[in-house]
Specification:
- By secondary structure, the protein is an alpha+beta fold.
- The protein folds into two domains: 39 residues; 90 residues, Immunoglobulin-like (Sandwich), CATH 2.60.40.
- It is 26% helix and 35% strand.
- The protein contains one helix and nine strands.
- Strand 2 and strand 3 form a beta hairpin.
């Protein structure tokens, strides 16, 4: 009989501890669930690269999309002297996009979605030499 009483006390104590644990943990579990619901899955990074006579242009997807410019002879390329013009060619009508210089790359406006752009033209001018690159985002990088 004494064992039965001890077992009942133990079961009640365990039930009370479970309720206390749930009361403490449920609010934090809800917070974790809410954060995960708000964060979308990260999109895979895509890259496109074109080589010209003097320069190489690499576009990396993301928010914002980044444009890297490399010289064939990197020691001779001064990014401060580089002028970059970016135009969306498709979907029509074409539109010149503003680019911001950020360290060793240029960034497209945050709202630019490369998935919706089918064709992009990048015109790079450095030391009176100009190269034009066309990127077709419908094809694989």
């Amino acid at each position: 009989m004494n064992n039965q009483v001890n077992l009942n006390r133990f079961v009640r104590a365990a039930a009370i501890l479970n309720l206390i644990f749930l009361a403490i943990m449920l609010p934090s579990m809800k917070a974790w669930a809410d954060v995960d619901a708000l964060d979308p899955l990260p999109q895979p990074v895509r890259e496109w690269k074109k080589e010209g006579q003097f320069l190489t242009i690499q576009i990396v997807s993301g928010k914002p999309a980044k444009i890297y410019v490399f010289g064939r002879e990197e020691a001779k390329l001064n990014l401060a002297d580089l002028k970059l013009t970016v135009r969306r060619l498709n979907p029509y009508p074409g539109k010149t996009l503003s680019v911001d210089r950020a360290g060793n790359y240029f960034s497209l406006p945050y709202e630019t979605d490369l998935e919706k752009i089918k064709k992009l033209e990048v015109k790079a001018t450095v030391e009176n030499k100009m190269e034009v690159f066309q990127f077709n985002f419908g094809e694989k990088p």
